[in-house]
Amino acid sequence: MNHVFELEGVDYQLWLSRCQQGYRLHLGNEILVPLDFSHQGDGGGLLSIAGANESVRFAIDGDTIHLHIRGRTRVLRYRDPLLAHSLVKKDAGLLVARAPMPGVVVKTSVLPGDQISAGSGLMVIESMKLESVIRAPQDGVVDRIHFSEGESFEHGAILVTIKEEGH
Amino acid sequence: MRKLPFDTVLIANRGEIAVRIIKTLRELELRSAIVYHDLDAGAPAVSMADMAIAVSGRTPVAAYLDTAQIIAAAREASVGAIHPGYGFLAENAEFARAVVESGIAFVGPTPESIQLMGDKIRARNFVQQNGFPVMHSANEEDDPASFILRARSIGAPLLVKASAGGGGKGMRIVRDLDTLEDAIAEARSEAQRYFGDGRLYIERYIEKLRHIEVQVLGDSFGNVVHLFERECSVQRRFQKVIEEAPASTISPRFRQGICEAAVGIARAANYRNAGTVEFIVDGGEFYFLEMNTRLQVEHPVTEMITGIDIVAEQLYVAGGHELRFSQSDIVSKGHAIEARMYAEAPERGFAPTTGKVLVLEYPDGPGLRIDSGISQGQQITTAFDPLLAKVIVHSRTRNEAALKVERAMRELVLLGCETNASFLARVLADEQFLSGQVHTGYLDENPQLTAADSASDLSTFLAAAALLTRPVCDSADAVPELHASLGGWRNA
Question: For residue B414, what is the enclosing H or E element?
Fold first, then answer.
């Protein structure tokens, strides 16, 4: 069966199968073989891909896999097949403005019930020394403001919910 | 070692600079005390200090800005001196005054010097009156009614700056004069909000300028020396990313000129303790930009080339000693480069990142120095500055130093919070950087350095992730090898 890993906002579908020398990675039309991973101490190991060895440092935190290979660090998220499915169902007529980065609300510029047009400023947020404006993705009516001035939020948090007009 | 009139020093700071100051205090056999906010309870500086006193505030930053609590902590720990580090209260004249009035030595300049140099317009006028070069500018205070007209007459592009500015706040670049009034309004509101002071001035914006600064040291006996220059031209959004000493591609005559100007400015201001005179360099000319009346983030590159521990000298000066060397004793040797590791994602517009440090491993080697303020298990939040650690290398030549820092940035392992480490490695290996052709617009002009090369090594990372994820391996192991070898049909 297919498994999904998210990396830098892109979903990659892949699956593994066994082969004599270890595993085979099926990634789109690409098949990598053979591959294997041997653990070396805590959080480290050797990945062998088609005869080449790569030293890997890793940390696993829930569904998140942090990897350091060849001087690069990347964060991959394993998408549980069941969870990934439920995310597709979307509440029709509601739009959300998500936090592009963690930060603090400096100012809210709208109130629930306000009529807004695409591009209008909803909220001013600050992440350390960077101030940015959260803008409406399209026309609508402000449904809910999830954080008040001075409150902090994490990356991806829903900041403002907007009702599409006509709903 | 000369005797100091105090045996305990309070550090009114956090992070890597607090750790760095504690190291020198230990070297000088002095005791260290530190104030900390609850969020920093697990930070290395707090466990390293001999004494740690909690402070609180409406926000975490506010705790480190609370003069009353800090002075109360200093009394509680019976310290004889307070080192403010950089940022927070380091350039707050009121704080320095309150410390001195409490009978505690302030490890820094006099409150008068902080006040003079803290106001960018006053500092600029002072420097000009003393015969040193400054940039042509329009100052609002001179005549508010004609401010915009005078600014326009300088011609685009312009840079709007806050008189009380710092750290890139209250600054706007104006390329189209039609947007000048908007930029003034934005800069003013930002300056008002961050510094409580909306006064502005405007100068010509030079796209390809270099930022060169000179480290100075003065004592209470009128001696002032320089510790040579640092080049800090590699910047993003007015924030330094990579610094080095000495500056490359400048002539010995230029070096002498800029260093002597810095000493002249410090001497005119009766400057005491460590300070940095920053200059804009355009072609073969330099202009005074500002003076930072404190220890700077990038001071280690100067320490590496001169062999002088600047924090130790700060403590001796604060303890009333005369400088331990004269100008001719200070020799620059080799080349040093510092790279700042930030909790930020360069490929997403340098947006700050957060997370828990799950794995932290620093490389080690000759000539390599790591000034770090974090440890494994620590939570990185947006409550403070994103600086996590500085990687500093001292080598015989600039190219060798660049290569070593690049390697260190790639060997360094920090898992759990995204950093700019691989971005720094890309910059350090870039042809233009290696040729020394850097200016403050360099990173903006080379977006390929900022963009992540998403495609490379992708399958390697996905393979490692797949092999480390139990359900993925389990579903492979559940299928007998014979069936699996039939291929992708089960993929339905």
Answer: strand B413-415
**pTM for this one?**
0.85
Asked if A75's CB is within 8 angstroms of B467's CB, the reply is no
Which residue among B239, B348, B476 sits closest to A16, beta carbon to beta carbon?
B476
Contact A58 B414 (CB under 8 A): no
Question: CB-based contacts of A104: which residues, under 8 Å, 6+ apart?
Answer: A125, A126, A127, A150, A151, A152, A153, B382
CATH 3.40.50.20 correct for B8-107? yes
Any CB–CB contact under 8 A between B474 and chain A?
no
What's the CATH fold of domain B135-204?
Dna Ligase; domain 1 (3.30.1490)
In 3-state terms, chain A is what percent helix, strand and coil (to 5)? 5, 60, 35
Considering the segment(s) A82-164 as one domain, its CATH architecture is Beta Barrel (2.40)
List chain B domain ranges. 8-107, 135-204, 210-450
Q: Which of A71, A76, A131 sits opposite B465 (nearest CB)?
A: A76
| CATH code for residues A2-79 | 3.30.700.30
Tens digit of pLDDT at every position of chain B (492 positions): 679 999 999 999 999 999 999 999 999 999 999 999 999 999 999 999 999 999 999 999 999 999 999 999 999 999 999 999 999 999 999 999 999 999 999 999 999 999 999 988 899 999 999 999 999 899 998 899 999 999 999 999 999 999 887 767 889 999 999 999 999 999 998 888 888 888 999 999 988 899 999 999 999 999 999 999 999 999 998 889 999 999 998 999 999 999 999 999 999 999 999 999 999 999 889 999 999 999 999 999 999 999 999 999 999 999 999 999 999 999 999 999 999 999 999 988 899 999 999 999 999 999 999 999 999 999 999 899 899 999 999 999 999 999 999 999 999 999 999 999 999 999 999 999 999 999 999 999 999 999 877 677 899 999 999 999 999 998 888 876 544 444 433 333
What is B210-450's CATH superfamily? ATP-grasp fold, B domain (3.30.470.20)
Among A37, A75, A154, the residue with its CB nearest the CB of B354 is: A154
Cα A166 from chain centroid (whole Å): 30
Q: Phi and psi of A56, rounded to 5°? A: -125, 135
Do B465 and A65 lie within an 8 Å CB cutoff? yes
Query: B120-129 and B252-268 are packed helices; what angle lies between their axes, rounded to 10 degrees?
Result: 110
DSSP letter at B30 equals -
What residues does each domain of chain A span? Answer: 2-79, 82-164
Q: What is the C-alpha to C-alpha distance for residues B261 and B249, in angstroms, rounded to an integer? A: 19
